[in-house]
Amino acid sequence: MTRYAAFLRGIMPSNPNMRNDRLRAVVEGLGFDGVGSVLSSGNIVFGCAQTDPAELEDKIQAALRAELGIGGGTIVRARDELRALVDSDPFADLTHGRGSYLTATFLKQPMPGPLATAPPELAAAVRVVRYDVPARAVLSVIDNTSAETSKYMGWVEQVYGKDITTRTWLTVHKVLAKL
Prior knowledge:
Blueprint: E1 2-8, H1 20-29, E2 33-37, E3 43-48, H2 53-68, E4 74-78, H3 79-87, E5 100-107, E6 126-132, E7 137-143, H4 152-160, E8 164-168, H5 169-178
Antiparallel strand pairs: 1-3, 1-4, 2-3, 5-7, 5-8, 6-7
């Protein structure tokens, strides 16, 4: 059995249909094992014999839409992919903190072209570190002290589309620990 993390897009814990207990129930209802949640931002861990992440994404998303009306998007990564990503130490000597967020933006599909760098208006607030091919993750450092930071997600969606979801590096570590 393989362990997976499902990163759900657009989860708002204030919405009763998006609370962890309801999200877990939907995934458990699909017959997956060891279902758990990490934080309250749409991170679900589970195990199953299925080995096609794209099929798992579709299956989970269809169930979330049908049972809870959630249409935001689901991105699945295997524990081994997340372990390799974390072990690659993409942020080396950097520390996640209030002023500087280390982030991983997971793409549903492989990156369509070359790695984009932040446009001039975001250059002071965002540094794209690299793209991790196996995890399909764009790794960035975001300066939270800059007023321009609020434009980051719009830029990322413009460049990579809406089939993405971003997590802090701390969240990626917490998800991996729960797997």
